[in-house]
Amino acid sequence: MRTIQVTVKPNARASDLEEREDGTWLARLKAPPVDGKANAELVALIARRFGQPRSRVSIKRGTTGRVKIVTVDDRQR
């Protein structure tokens, strides 16, 4: 299980995810922060980055804020 802190910037030109020097992540998302669209895009982006299905990625804290705590279940089953 991996836990990461992600700062989200919605309404970006392109979606991307980058790790910062301090170990946190920055996610630029094309989706607007409306009706959970940005959160859904964030989960998909993190799942793709870590090679996991979306069902193994969850937002634990910060669903309505810009700083989120996200867990990725990358354990072998």
Q: What is the third-level CATH name, the topology? A: Conserved Hypothetical Protein Mth637, Chain: A
* Rg measurement, Å: 12 Å
> What ranges have pLDDT less than 50 throughout 5 or more consecutive residues?
none
CATH level-4 homologous superfamily: YggU-like
Structure description:
By secondary structure, the chain is an alpha+beta fold. It has a single domain, classed as 2-Layer Sandwich (Conserved Hypothetical Protein Mth637, Chain: A), CATH 3.30.1200.10. It has one helix and five strands; from the N terminus they run βββαββ. It has a five-stranded mixed beta sheet, covered by helices on one side. A hairpin with a 5-residue loop joins β2 (16-19) and β3 (25-28). The longest helix is centred in the middle third of the chain and has 14 residues, at 37-50. The model has no long low-confidence stretch (mean pLDDT 95).
Write the layout of secondary structure elements.
Blueprint (H helix, E strand, L loop, with lengths): L1 E8 L6 E4 L5 E4 L8 H14 L6 E5 L5 E6 L5
Parallel strand pairs: 1-3
Antiparallel strand pairs: 1-5, 2-3, 4-5
Attribute tags:
five-stranded mixed beta sheet; alpha+beta; 1 helix; Conserved Hypothetical Protein Mth637, Chain: A; globular; 77 residues
What's a quick, concise take on this entry?
The chain is of the alpha+beta class and 77 residues long. It is built from one helix and five strands. The chain has a five-stranded mixed beta sheet, covered by helices on one side.
